[in-house]
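Example record

One chain of 365 residues, shown exactly as stored in the release files.
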Amino acid sequence: MTPLDALVALNMLPKIGPVRVRRLLEAFGNPAAVLSAPKDRLMRVDGIGEETAKILHGWQDHADPAAEIREATERGITIVTQDDQGYPAPLRDAYDPPLLLYVWGKIEPRDRHAIGVVGSRRATHYGTQATKKLSYQLAQAGFTIISGLARGIDTAAHEAAVAANGRTIAVIGSGLGKLYPPENLVLAEKIAAGNGAVVSEFPLHTAPDKQTFPMRNRIVAAWARALLVVECPAWSGSLITANLASEYGKPVFAVPGPIDKPTSAGCNQLIRDGATLVADASHILDDLGELPFARKASAAEPAADFPELPEEEAAVFAAVTTDESPVDRIIERSGLPAHVVTATLMKLEMRRLVRAFPGFRYARR
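Predicted structure tokens for this chain:
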């Protein structure tokens, strides 16, 4: 049995977890020795009771590592362990780092410069637009956007990073063979095809549940250099992620919202508790500093009335006037779907062709 086979087997066992595995490895030296140890010796390890020792001793009843590795390979998924160079360095410093990661796509060294973006699954128009704007700007500045591929804010963050042709990492709360939510499969394919990676610590066919999502959140908090919370109610998993980020010593940023909207209560409380208020990506860049490989818009880019643009960008630009116009009116004038218009407006803003104003209003520069 190879070290990878043994680690995959340990990772597939129920009721074990990375902390217990770390204690076992400290006691036995390597994963294969753990799997071959007698029950009485296993039970001498702190935190390993009779039930856990029985699972470990009978591990073949629970795991088929050869089949798991074979299926991962067939799906184009790489299994990365803590000893591999491709394992994200920030995760090694976590209290309970994942034993291994299933990676669909590619993790690059620059992904250590990641900013976590989290928020409500039931995002409002305000939250979605704020997420797209900030994530697009941060991706343009060279930061990798890391989020959870969930509905709402997570989805908007990943989409904006892809629209900016930037990097994004989606850490999911299920196995890659049970990708959740299923409607984000197309987005996941785009990410894995060249914009980053979809990552999970769970065996391929692990279904999502109430335990897997908090485990996913700790990876986002530990991996990211900073965490941005865009929109969330007073009781939200995003606040758990923010607390974890604080425990890891990571700066926490939050987007303020209307004081009479429950959807913004969590962010407003974070700001009250000391999180940095963010209304523009520059507020984050001022704290973290710009990256040496950041892609900046050129001041010499054309700003004529009708610059040479791709078809969709030209249609949206033509729908923007020199007067401030709400995004709904621009959508109506262009005749394009709302998601196309909002993504294109961000591109035009970064090219210094249009300017954004409060209330999601735009005008030509």
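Notes: Confidence is low (pLDDT under 50) at residues 296-305.
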